[in-house]
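To assess whether ligand presence alters the predicted conformation, the chain was also submitted together with FE2/S2 (inorganic) cluster. Input:
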Amino acid sequence: MKCTRCKKQAEVELKSHNAAFCRECFNYFFLNQVQKAIKTFKMFSKKDRVLVAVSGGKDSLALWDALLSLGYNADGLFIYLGIEGFSNVALTKVRKFASERGAKLIEVNLTNEGLAIPKVKEKTRRVVCSLCGQIKRYYFNMVGLKNNYDVLATGHNLDDEVSRLFSNVLHWKMDYLKEQSPALPSEDGLLKKVKPLFRLTEFETSAYAFFKKIDYVDISCPFSKGATFTIYKKHLNSIEYHSPGTKIDFYQGFLKKLKPILEESKKEKKNLCKICGYPTYSDVCSICRLKGLS
Ligand code: AMP
Ligand code: FES
Ligand code: ZN
């Protein structure tokens, strides 16, 4: 198999793009896809201060690497979740990545906030993963706003977005569908949020991380076993295998055909939490309630 771009020996085949690439051309393709996402959705410019939420996994570290390679002003934010055997490994990898590149890293330790995930798990009967996601988003926003960043970027890839879309459509979660987008503008109390890897699959981010020798955490969170999205991803991969290009078509179709209709319908007005100022539908946001502040 020859590289579609330079005709040297190819190392990766991308059936959905009807292409194959050598290592060098694959990295060029990857950065091009990131750049295309940033431009199409007006995510940020070279003048903006970007805060990249990095978990230590392949996607967010590949994203941070890509943004630095493309010359963006990108700092990292790591939330230490306090999960034994998992959080320390992630922290070490993220620190190593930042120091090798001389990049700035902000760290938040949830143990100091009274919100270490194992403790939260003991306190509530709700599924800890969804609470953990809520807590992370809260700190992404707060740290970004406090430190005057223009935008918060996460490492969600095409597989994440497609499985989320699939789940939202299966259950017709209209409010979630309205909020699903590669770029969410800033609002009162909310920092702009973007997903520059939304055009790239998990396979493609893994290949990029491998070619760029990024040292990432490849153990998964002990609480995330059997998550529904993992099952959806498996089925969507099987569809993609039989019909390459389905994932990107499904997602792009949503963005082009359904999103404009959804955007016309009015959103419910949010209040600001009377304790911390985070947007909420009630008086006090769920994180302040979890901390026992109300
Ligand atoms: P997940 O929900 O674990 O699939 O993560 C989605 C995205 O959230 C990742 O690509 C990161 O950008 C970000 N993220 C997840 N966990 C953390 C963390 N502990 N600290 C900072 N960012 C995170
Ligand atoms: Fe949050 Fe697993 S990463 S519960
Ligand atoms: Zn090539």
